């Protein structure tokens, strides 16, 4: 399917509008023929034959024609614009749906700026094509064909002389299109890079300021900015190479009409009035020739945007999304059976190797280990954010792959390491997983997460709107709100990835005590750096380079006097040091 056929899939829903628009377009465009004809009549009849009484009616008709043209033109332009906007609306919706469907793998490989360019600049290029370029092309074709027919009826010799230059325009247009094609694709790519850079700078503005790297960032921006300017200049240079020639050929029509037309009038093969009429229609032949270069630019921009949007719409999530018929409440048994995993683009690097464990419903599993040892990846396999490369993850003794993904995830709550809050009220953030929760329930979840105490002190309490990504809250506060959000969903499986890393020990203990009361029915995975966060767990796994090197309860692991024991001793020493510190000053 080519790009024009593809966009027709979206445009065709507006067929009725397009038919009406085309009727008005034809009326409006056909009326263009009337006034030059009437001008010829004025020259021949009113001026040459002295029929002065015809002047007023002819002028009146010309005024009415102009008025009708204006109204019909307004109507068809509006209808084309509506078609363009409707197309854009449906296209954007499909793209947004696709974004929701795509998985971690897509987002790992696609920059936000690139996605934003597709959602904004690219879709706008398509709207512009549907609502403006399309009827401009129609208009040009119409003018071209009709002007040749009408002019031939007046004088075929002169028409032939004019049409003789059109192959030149065709050749120039073809050459310009093939020269512009790669340039517009590059412009579009460069714009996406510029957008990505700006987006990254805005997201990381605190880091930039903290490291005093503003000048570096400006230089970096200038590089992308320069590149974008240069790509546009490349397009302008291509235009500059061709447009003057197209203009020249278009202008030559007037010269041919004047010289050859004058010759025919002198020879008596044409009246002066006919030459005036001919001249009146000349711009209709002229216009498509002049416009062709500009329209090529718009069409090439449209084609470059189509490629990027279609690429995104054709992307398939690695993990198949099947819709579930009904809801399902799992009990929460989680088994890893010889699970290994590596990322597709890094097959040499085994992130998880032969992981085996079993957690009964309601049990708590603690996972500790050095950074990069695979803890987050392990829990990501439970919610099928990735599927194992080999082995099986079983939920309630059924392969996780056999669950429709949304049905499975409905049973799982995650508090992610990198906390993300929406720029919405705190209450809405907490009830994100289960909208329309009552205030009391929201508050009780916040209490368990030890968030209620600081939320009620905020100016609007639970109705306080937090900034983008939770700006305005401390790291620990964000963690606690995101814990409340996870709890509010009332999942069978609760995953806490470094959830209390940013809260003090006292608060952590409080949260743990509250959690313990409610998590007896939930299988809970706790990833933590502090042993104090996992010591009560039914199973503790110590990870190293993707392997579980030690596992058992706290007491069993301590009795082994292995790595876990060493870590515990180290952390105990640190804790004591912290406690002794202030007293010893
Ligand atoms: N999207 C990715 N593509 C390729 N490799 C990745 C990706 N995400 C993580 N990794 C690699 O996988 C390994 C395990 O990462 P993971 O985030 O699971 O570690 P972790 O134990 O949770 O670390 P931390 O304690 O720092 O959060 C790391 O070596 C990391 O570089």
Automatic annotation (TrEMBL):
ABC transporter domain boundaries: 334-570
GO molecular function, one term: ATP binding
Annotated transmembrane regions: 18-39, 54-72, 129-150
Subcellular compartments: Cell membrane
InterPro entries, per the entry: AAA+_ATPase, ABC1_TM_dom, ABC1_TM_sf, ABC_transporter-like_ATP-bd, ABC_transporter-like_CS, P-loop_NTPase, Type_1_exporter
Keywords carried by this UniProt record: ATP-binding, Membrane, Nucleotide-binding, Transmembrane, Transmembrane helix
Topological type in the membrane: Multi-pass membrane protein
UniProt keyword annotation of Isomerase present: no
Protein name per Swiss-Prot or TrEMBL: ABC transporter ATP-binding protein
Species whose genome carries this gene: Lapidilactobacillus gannanensis
């Amino acid at each position: 399917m080519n790009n024009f056929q593809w966009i027709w899939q979206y445009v065709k829903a507006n067929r009725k509008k397009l038919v009406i628009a085309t009727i008005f377009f034809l009326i409006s465009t056909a009326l263009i023929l009337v006034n030059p004809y009437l001008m010829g009549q004025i020259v021949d009849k009113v001026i040459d034959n002295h029929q002065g009484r015809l002047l007023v009616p002819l002028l009146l008709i010309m005024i009415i024609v102009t008025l009708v043209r204006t109204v019909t033109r307004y109507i068809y332009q509006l209808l084309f614009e509506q078609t363009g906007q409707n197309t854009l609306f449906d296209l954007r919706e499909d793209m947004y749906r696709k974004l929701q469907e795509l998985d971690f793998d897509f987002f790992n490989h696609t920059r936000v700026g690139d996605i934003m360019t597709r959602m904004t600049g690219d879709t706008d290029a398509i709207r512009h094509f549907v609502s403006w370029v399309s009827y401009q092309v129609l208009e040009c074709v119409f003018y071209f064909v009709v002007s040749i027919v009408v002019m031939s009826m007046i004088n075929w010799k002169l028409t032939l002389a004019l049409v003789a230059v059109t192959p030149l325009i065709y050749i120039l247009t073809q050459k310009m299109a093939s020269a512009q094609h790669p340039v517009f694709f590059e412009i579009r790519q460069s714009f996406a890079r510029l957008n990505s850079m700006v987006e990254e700078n805005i997201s990381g503005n605190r880091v930039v300021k903290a490291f005093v790297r503003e000048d570096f960032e400006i230089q970096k921006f200038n590089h992308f900015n320069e590149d974008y300017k240069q790509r546009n200049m490349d397009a302008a240079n291509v235009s500059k190479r061709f447009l003057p020639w197209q203009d020249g050929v278009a202008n030559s029509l007037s010269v041919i009409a004047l010289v050859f037309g004058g010759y025919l009038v002198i020879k008596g093969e044409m009246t002066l009035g006919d030459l005036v009429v001919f001249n009146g229609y000349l711009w209709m032949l002229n216009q498509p020739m002049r416009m062709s270069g500009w329209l090529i630019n718009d069409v090439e921009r449209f084609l470059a945007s189509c490629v990027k949007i279609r690429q995104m719409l054709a992307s398939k999530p690695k993990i198949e999304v099947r819709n579930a018929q009904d809801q399902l409440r799992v009990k929460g048994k989680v088994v890893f059976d010889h699970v290994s995993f590596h990322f597709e683009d890094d097959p040499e690097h085994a992130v998880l190797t032969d992981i085996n464990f079993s957690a009964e419903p309601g049990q708590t599993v603690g996972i500790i280990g050095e950074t990069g040892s695979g803890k987050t990846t392990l829990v990501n396999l439970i919610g099928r954010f990735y599927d194992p490369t080999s082995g099986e993850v079983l939920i309630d003794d059924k392969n996780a792959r056999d669950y429709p993904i949304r049905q499975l995830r409905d049973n799982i709550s995650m508090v992610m390491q990198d906390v993300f809050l929406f720029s919405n009220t705190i209450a809405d953030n907490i009830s994100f997983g289960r909208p329309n929760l009552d205030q009391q329930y929201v508050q009780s979840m916040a209490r368990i997460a030890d968030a209620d105490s600081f939320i009620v002190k905020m100016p609007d309490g639970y109705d306080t709107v937090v900034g983008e990504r939770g700006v305005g809250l401390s790291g620990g506060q964000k963690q606690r709100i995101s814990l409340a959000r996870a709890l509010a969903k009332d999942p069978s499986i609760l995953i806490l990835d470094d959830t209390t890393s940013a809260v003090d020990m006292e608060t952590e203990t409080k949260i743990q005590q509250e959690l313990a009361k409610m998590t007896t029915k939930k299988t809970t995975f706790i990833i933590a750096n502090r042993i104090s966060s996992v010591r009560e767990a039914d199973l503790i796994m110590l990870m190293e380079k993707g392997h579980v090197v030690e596992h058992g309860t706290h007491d069993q692991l301590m009795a082994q006097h292995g790595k876990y024991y060493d870590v515990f001793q180290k952390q105990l020493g640190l804790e004591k040091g912290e406690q002794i510190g202030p007293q010893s000053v």
